Amino acid sequence: MSDDSLPEAYRSTPLFGGNAPFVEELYERYLQDPNSVEPQWREYFATLGGEQAREVPHGPILEHLRERARQPRAVAASSDATHEASARQGAVSRLIQVYANRGHLVAGLDPLGLMDRPAPHVLDLEYFGLSDADLDTEFFTGSHVEAIPQFMKLRDIIAQLRFIYCDTIGAEFAHVSNSEERLWLQDRFQEARVLHKFSPEEKRNILWQLTAAEGLERYLHTKYVGQKRFSLEGGDSLIPLLDDLIQEGGEKGMEECVIGMAHRGRLNVLVNLLGKPPSLLFSEFEGHYDAQTQGSGDVKYHKGFSADLKTPRGNVHVALAFNPSHLEVVNPVVEGSVRARQERRGERSQDAVAPVLIHGDAAFAGQGVVMETLQLSQARGFTTGGTVHVIINNQVGFTTNPLDARSTLYCSDVAKMIETPIFHVNGDDPEAVVFVARFALEYRLKFHKDVVIDLVCYRRHGHNEADEPAATQPVMYQVIRKHPSPRKLYAERLVQEGMLQQAEADAMVEEYRRGLDEGKPQARASLGMIGNKYTVDWTRFLKADWHEPVRTAVDLDALRQLGRRIVAHPASMTLHPRVVQVLANREKMIAGEMPLDWGCAELLAYAALLRDGSDIRLVGQDTGRGTFFHRHAVLHDQQTGKSHIPLQHVAEGRRFTVIDSVLSEEAVVGFEYGYSTTEPGTLDVWEAQFGDFVNGAQVIIDQFISSGEAKWGRVCGLTMLLPHGYEGQGPEHSSARLERFLQLCAENNMQVCVPSTPAQMFHMLRRQMLRSFRKPLIVMTPKSLLRHKQSVSELRELAQGRFMNVIDDSIEKSAASQVRRAVFCSGKVYFDLLEHRQKHDVRDVAIIRIEQLYPFPTDEYAALLHKYASAREVVWCQEEPQNQGAWYQIRHRLLEPLSGSNVSGSNRQLLYAGRAPAAAPATGIHEMHDEQQQGLVQAALQSTTTEQSANETARLRALTRKSS
User: Fold this and answer.
1) From CA 262, how far away is CA 265, in angstroms rounded?
2) Mind listing the domains of the chain with CATH numbers?
3) Which of 90, 571, 705, 762 could disulfide-link to 20, CB 3.0 to 4.6 Å?
4) pLDDT tens digit sequence for 240-259
5) CB–CB of 127/445 below 8 Å?
6) Mutual orientation of helices 926-941 and 946-963 as an angle, nearest 10°?
């Protein structure tokens, strides 16, 4: 046995169970020859005899060892009896540990009694070599809890174990490998189960919360027959759970709580926890809306709400996050919002702001974003100090039974991957439910880790109120229709206990109903929206003026000073030779001896924003260095492995965070969305490893980033950097799916930009923060252009000018009349076109870059058409296939200024030059890529008639067919 195992061995029950014979054997050897055992055991055994004897509460085995130390000659004569006694004691100790580990398997968790789980033989006395004859024998319990005697009869030990581990709570923490946590969980859970008692006032409050939960659902069921509300009935105990969680949390120092949940029970939480006025909810049921309403709005069971709740120690601000129908997708959004609130407070313990996530059982087991979010829980830059997870376990997913909904015993098993403790609890025992809520909060505050409550309940109605659940779950719903509600069962229990009269319980029902009739707020603790010094005033970010003048330029002297800081590092650092060269080049760029590249311009933008008072958060799978070895925001010592981040030393008091995230898109983008909707003072940037990978976060983009403001009024300034460009790297390393973002663009909901120079990148990033409003910014960033000789800028371009939505050709104004064709494009293809034009001395074609595709720069585009009035052909050139990229999304915008409403009568033509339609984003054959690229460039620059243009298109189609 190693030194490392001794502390746990001394403190844990197994020392007196399975290890008992081992300890006895060691002691026998010690008595014969002290030098035959390891020093730590020799020292330990020496303390058992003579004047050095001390109290070590390790049970009868060690008492026996003490006795042996006093009377060594008597030991041999009684060795058989001793072995028999120690073996039985060891069996009892193992029995105790097995109950702690597996008692949940026989706990009474199912309110309906349908959970068919045979008791494992490992809990039988015979399994341990014990029998009924041992029931009245006293054994050592191994208890470290004062409330549990150290010696008890076996029948009392078993009764105690069944109450602690097999009643209406099933505890799972044997999978927690950290011994400190596991032993704390076991000891504290035993102690709390034995000692915890609810006061009469607490019991009355639990009954009131159940009355409110049931009362709202029945009221709505009667008043709005057949309307969807995703009733909480059957899982009513969620309301007392949340109420107590907030109250206990407030008493322990919590000041903010963000809750994320899907539909089930949301209306109940809104009204009975947060205090949303019932009159407002009824108005939504009746379909009324304010004629001044902006955007699309959303259904009532997707909406969020915020309020301050009164607790014994002070107010707790509670926010329920808005959530679409994509169930668990709100999880990372909540975590990001909580992280932003924590950083705003500057706290380290993360006790003041807590996340609570409420899940459905089928969704928790089935949705991948659950795993991704759990994986963030202890990751640097994402941890929020522990999340309390509550699973509303209806034991059915829409119409799907658990047998088909998962491959695990419990719906909560996925959480075991992060070794979080899990507490299963019967939803018909509200006191047990509140107990585990308190225990979960205690664990979160002590260890700052996630904890799961599996609230095993049922769904009284179908998936929604228009559904007929008996069609697919006939047996379950036969039981449910006869089953009393949690409120009724608990009221009867309190009456039997003498806690109250039946008339008092009935009076609560009438009191709540009267309140609903009057339309008054029903949450007793709710104070409405009060706010505090950390509350953000979002009104100043709501009105977007896209033409607002913003100075993004930075004086040359300031740029040089900032430039010196972004390359500064301790002289003692040993950097990689390539990084040394990167920094040396940056020094030359800052001195004006070399043109700026993209990495330098980007870091200068961050430095200038930090200087101006903004914080920066840069997150992605390889953001510290940059996927393409271009950023180097984090410097690594090649000898020690230590890192240095120069941008953290640019402006005192400002936060620059750069995180190489877990290999997730959906959860990380959701996290950053939540962060950016909470903290407008931070430039929040998420960068894809390759832009193609952003499709892993498509739900977040569709349901939150593009539409969150229209649906819920949630303002977001998230910036997404998506490497995009066709370099022959195949279907998954070429396209960031520009067409999908443009398809989502409407109502000025976001910006889509394709900057082509480092200076454009600099001004664009600064514009994002210096504007007085917040909109998502989607950026198609370069790959090969990061080191392209022509895609560079001078330092002075950062000291003057601004981000240009459109960049005109460098053709002299006097030569504009000679232009016969105007080619518009975005991104990397511009440099291919430019190179071809220069190589073939093409003089009658202008190449114009549209750097912002949405909101489309209509006025600038029209002005350039006017400038090149002699151009009979207007071409849109893109690298992407015709059915992808920008073409079909901006074609109508390109056409409109050409001829007004009469396109067919125009003598100017709009032509397309690009790849032919394709199923995949790009070819994976490099030779074919080159042929296609040359073909589209030639089609854009060299065809001067419709017939020639058609020929080029036909040739491109042929190339595409060849690839397939």
Assistant:
1) 8
2) 3-144 (no CATH), 200-287+295-518 (3.40.50.970), 556-798 (3.40.50.12470), 808-963 (3.40.50.11610)
3) 90
4) 999 999 999 999 999 999 99
5) no
6) 170
